[in-house]
NAD(+) diphosphatase
Amino acid sequence: MIQDIEPRKFDITFKDMKPKNTDYALLFCEEFVLMKQPDGQERAAEFLTFNELNALEEVREVKKRSTYLFSIDDNKYFSVNIPKEKEMDCRKKVIREGKVLAWISQNAFRALKEKWLGFAGITAVQINRWFLNHRYCGRCGKPLIYSKTERSLICENCHITEYPKISPAIIVGIVDGDKLLLTRYADRPYKRYALIAGFSEVGEALEDTVKREVMEEVGLKVKDITYYKSQPWSFSDSLLAGFFARLDGDNTVTLADGELAEGTWFSREQIPVNQEEIALTAEMIRYFADGNDVFK
């Protein structure tokens, strides 16, 4: 899955610190990140150091506006949002030392050759998106300031503390004997088969979310809800919890209006498996298709 970057070690522990020239700078233009790559090879993109960024006339002195994000092994990563008047065109490409500087969208992080770079990039996007969406207090409108002791934003007037947005959500593989229910979305760019998924509501336990989402999306009842694994999914600011559940009763699928385009039962031998996909839903599909006992 996307977070499985061993043997590299990811450390999200908060630190109030300033960057060194050898640290990595994730320069943001809205939700685009400036990276270097061989011309035309987006999947080989790499992050820039502050030394490399400071060489660019448009973004000199960026260290003064940086915020610590996390470390991977001994490498530290910081976010930088350049002022509006200095923003470079998000589609602009410049040759630097034989490589192209390009603005990379968040979707590109799913396909980088170095998987750990993709995880680092999208995790940084989530944290930075939280920064951008919480510049001002939602109660009094005054600017929020960075905490010096934890990863939070504080209103000095209202004493409100804002923490990073993390939305709990479930993914559930519905099992009927030797069959698994696969679905396809009706209105999303992702057109491959997936499992039922949805966000938790206020006051819900995750198991209750499973039951509600299954009934809402495909009109089925489930039992024997069994936890599988979890996954941070920064593309949607989510923390995903994966479950398998047995069908409880009739297996006739009734699709919710507009949510899903398809809901089909597949035997293990029929399941279309995607070996490259880094999402929890794909791993769960592979796990069932490989013949594992998902209720052990």
In short: The helical segments are 50-54, 115-133, 206-218, 280-289. Residues 167-289 form a domain with the Nucleoside Triphosphate Pyrophosphohydrolase fold (CATH 3.90.79.10).
